[in-house]
Amino acid sequence: MAQPKTVRRFLILSLLLAVCLAAGGTTAREPSTIELLDDYVAGRFDRVVETLAGDAKFDEILEQLQRDGPAWIDVGGPTARARRKLAAATWDREAARGGAWHEWKHIQKQPRMCDHTGKECYDPPNVLYWRPPPLLLEWGCELLRRHPTPQPIERWWQLAALAVAQRSEDPQFLIGDTSIGRGIAAGEVGNVQLEIKHLDHVTPRFPQEMRFVLAQGIARDRFWPDDAISVYRALEKDPDVAGEATMRLGAMQMRLAGRSLPAGPGGVPRGRSDPSDALKNLERAENLTRDPYVVFLARYFKAQIFERQRRPQETEAAYRSAVAAVPHAQSATVALAAIVFNDGRRAEAQQLVRDMLAAEPAPLDPWRAYVHADDRFWPQLIGRLRAEILK
Predict the structure, then answer these.
(1) Distance CA 36, CA 98 (A)
(2) pLDDT attached to residue 355
(3) CA-CA distance, 337 to 318, in Å (whole number)?
(4) Residues 252, 253, 254, 258: is their CA dihedral positive or negative?
(5) pLDDT at 27 (0 to 100)
(6) Mean pLDDT across 107-129
(7) Per-residue b/e over 311-340, b at no fewer than 16 CB within 10 Å?
(8) Which is deepest, 105, 150, 199, 344, by most CB within 10 Å?
(9) pTM score, two decimals?
(10) Residue 39 phi, psi dihedral angles, 5° rounding
(11) How far is it, in rounded angstroms, from Cα 247 to Cα 299?
């Protein structure tokens, strides 16, 4: 006897559902840290980066690296060890960078504690928890620091580590608690023994590398401006970083314009920041470097000062010169197009925007990259490290 249509449909539907559930339950296995290290040391860099850019579980990556990394480095004996150690330390740079914008740290506010009357209360200090990316950075840093004398390639590695740390936008990792002395409400932490202070590890190993000194100023820029000013001024004559240090000094003076400067030694007042000081330093910065990033920012910040001072001709000229330094950079191009448009030159404004949108590849906008500092060097730094691994 033939089955009713409803029964047949039910059986077919059940079969399809079972197939779908079986297919949905089959997921690709995540490669282990050791498998990723094997790929990395073999030069399959893009495959590793693609995996880390996906839904990577950084807690597991860190745990496996701490547990299995040392044994992996020792595979192949003393002749292979140096190369595998560099590969592991560089791989963990890539992992830390992949997770820097997903998770970095957590500062937990503790609940208020009161006595039985509820009248006498105490706010416990905040507790700092580092997440896997900064701990990955420190794993590699500690690995390389075990050698009493830094090898030449370590300088490039440490510069890459600095690029990742600055990409995170967290100066606390580099110099310690930036809220120290400001109280619990401002985020000051109590467990200072867990502070990393990465620059304290690096600077003594490379006392001649001025980018690490400049990083000290950048990390203090918004929290301890007086200290940052001292760092920037100490670098005014350095042949490598004088231009950027002077540009950042001018940018900070622009930001503080009209505000009272921090007191000097002995509590002596220093008056108010003057925008003319910022303009002088931004002008000087242009003459100290040929780095388009620094030149663009010096001109861009000058344009912003002129704009605040209602000096339209100087504003337009400064934005034009910034665009000349880095053609089609979005921040200066849009600002220039707005000025031109408001002046009635609509065709020119439209052309500026069209050319900006058509630029291929789109240029790195120095203003957008300003807070990330040395992360702009990442492609060159990681390229140098990868080439050393493949030797």
Answers:
(1) 14
(2) 95
(3) 13
(4) positive
(5) 52
(6) 86
(7) eeeebbbbbebbbebbebbbbbbbbbbebb
(8) 199
(9) 0.85
(10) -65, -40
(11) 9
Both tokens of residue 11?
A: 């059986």
Half-sphere exposure of residue 24, counting CA atoms within 13 Å on the CB side? 6
217 and 228 Cβ atoms separated by less than 8 Å: yes
Residue in 109, 167, 183 with CA at minimum distance from that of residue 134: 167
pLDDT at residue 127, as a whole number: 92
Which residues, including other chains, have CB under 8 Å from residue 135's CB and lie 6 or more apart?
A: 62
Q: Which amino acid is at 349?
A: A
Residue 107 phi, psi dihedral angles, 5° rounding = -110, 115
Residue in the block written with tokens 């439209």: 350
Helix axes 33-41, 45-53, angle to 10 degrees: 150
Q: Is the pLDDT of residue 29 over 90?
A: no
Q: Write out pLDDT tens, residues 48-102.
A: 999 888 788 899 999 999 999 999 999 988 889 999 999 999 999 999 998 888 8
Which phi-psi region, left, alpha or beta, contains residue 113 (left: φ > 0; alpha: ψ -120 to 50)?
Answer: beta
Longest dimension (CA), the chain: 105
Closest by CA to 205, choosing from 134, 133, 245, 147, is: 147
The vertex-192 CA angle with 191 and 197, nearest 5°, equals 140
Q: From CA 389, how far away is CA 381, in angstroms rounded?
A: 13
- The residues, ordered by sequence, that sit 6+ positions from 194 with a Cβ below 8 Å of its Cβ are 128, 130
User: What average pLDDT does the structure give for the chain?
Assistant: 89
**Where would I find the H helices in the chain?**
5-24, 33-41, 45-53, 58-74, 78-99, 132-145, 152-167, 171-175, 198-202, 210-220, 225-234, 242-255, 275-288, 292-308, 312-325, 330-342, 346-358, 366-369, 378-389
The DSSP 8-state label assigned to residue 267 in this structure reads G
C-beta neighbour count of 364 within 10 angstroms: 15
Is residue 106 helix, strand or coil? Answer: strand
Q: Is the pLDDT of residue 202 over 70?
A: yes
For the stretch 286-343, pLDDT in tens is 999 999 999 999 999 999 999 999 999 999 999 999 999 999 999 999 999 999 999 9
What is the spatial distance between Cα 130 and Cα 75, in angstroms, rounded to a whole number?
Answer: 30
